[in-house]
Amino acid sequence: MRGAIPIESNQLPSSVWTRVESTEIHARVLRCPERQCPVIMLVHGLGLSSRYMVPLAQHLSPFFDVYAPDLPGFGKSGKPSDALDIAQLAAGLLAWMDQLGLTRVIALGNSFGCQVIAEMAILPPHRLEQSILVGPTIDAHARTTLRQGGRLLSDIPWEPLSLLPLNIRDYLACRPARLWQTYRFALEDAIEEKLPHMSMPTLVVRGGRDPIVSQRWAEEVAALLPAGTLAVVPGAGHAVNYNSPAELARLVTAFANR
Asked: CA 160, CA 243: separation in Å to the nearest integer?
């Protein structure tokens, strides 16, 4: 992998559909122009899809083969009759990787996507070379619906206006019942119990203005990881992959090149 500062690609992602058991998994894929680039997987947040990962994917694609799946039940992926819990979503992604022949990847998640990655990291076989947790949820000091809802609303001013209609479209596509049940699974998930078992090098990224992930919580997450490092993107809200893709891509590229 060459270069320390990623340059945004004008390439648009291709849609790749993969059947995993009875569910079609949709992913947006951007391939590096060079041969044998590392593979990075981008995992979206609660109720969303890989669409808001596209700006980051375009900044990473000069140096990585980028795969951004829609989790089962979300985006363009198939909709199982019942909402899947975090363990089921993680197992589904591992099976999806098997189908595509992705034996080892760098995994990057935003928000709820970090919870899925933490679950993947502790499930055998161990397939993650490195992980990047961008705005990891849920803060153990604010694990209530009231506090999470308030923090989510407080994040709106720190995100680009274009993110709101994108989010609303994805929320409607996954249906309110699935969104609510998945949120309940997220709220019940104690990510802090899994972090000490994530043995791979892990970068924790917090947006400097993120009201959902406090500086205190971000520092605790990094400290709980056996090989954790914390970076802060000044002025950024929760969705750093969307509001500050170039800055995040620089951090990711430098981290992967260590």
From this structure: 6
Tell me what pLDDT residue 8 has. 56
Looking up tokens 């680039």 gives 37
- Phi, psi of 32, deg, nearest 5: -65, 140
Sign of CA dihedral 210, 215, 216, 221: positive
Which pLDDT value is given to residue 36?
Answer: 87
Whole-number pLDDT of residue 218? 99
Task: Domain of residue 180: give its range.
Answer: 14-256
Question: How high is the pLDDT of residue 82?
Answer: 95
CATH assignment at residue 128: 3.40.50.1820
- Measure the CA–CA gap between 22 and 158, rounded to whole angstroms: 39
For residue 253, give the nearest of 78, 61, 99 by alpha carbon. Answer: 61
Which residues of the chain carry a pLDDT beneath 50? 1-7
Q: What is the pTM of this model?
A: 0.94
Whose tokens are 């909402």? That residue is: 83
Q: Structural domain tally of the chain?
A: 1
What confidence tens digit (pLDDT) does each residue in 135-162 have?
999 999 999 999 998 999 999 999 999 9
Tell me if 112 sits within 8 A of 135, measured CB to CB. Answer: no
The β-bridge relationship of strands 105-110 and 14-20 is: unpaired
Asked whether residue 8 is domain-assigned, the answer is: no
Q: Which residue has the tokens 């990291």?
A: 121
- CA 17, CA 31: separation in Å to the nearest integer? 16
